[in-house]
Design a protein that fits this description.
A 4-stranded mixed sheet has the order 3-2-1-4. It starts with 13 loop residues before the first strand and ends with a strand. With 87 residues, the chain is an alpha+beta fold. It is 25% helix and 26% strand. The longest helix is centred in the last third of the chain and has 22 residues, at 51-72. The protein has one domain (14-86).
Length: 87
């Protein structure tokens, strides 16, 4: 049986997305009682993507959200101004 390589699993409840000409930067963070705003929340991991991969990721997320909602029901939108993604 093939064993998958081990890697850390990180729980994040916030993603801050920025970009430059050749890269998209996604900082995954965790908000909690000790840090309730985006800037003070620690960055747990940064993922840097080429724009082509970022666009493919967007399309894959759209398709997977569609499948999820088809199976489990509509995912509610977060309240205005409290979204889990900051751009």
């Amino acid at each position: 049986m093939k064993r998958e390589p081990e890697f850390p699993v990180v729980y994040a409840n916030l993603a801050k997305i920025t970009h430059v000409a050749l890269e998209f930067l996604m900082d995954f963070k965790r908000l909690g009682p000790e840090n309730r705003d985006v800037e003070s929340a620690p960055t747990l991991v940064r993922v840097v993507l080429h724009p082509v991969i970022a666009k493919a990721l967007r399309d894959a997320l759209v398709e997977n959200v569609r499948r999820y909602e088809e199976k489990f029901g509509e995912i509610p939108a977060p309240p205005k101004g409290t979204g889990p993604v900051v751009h």
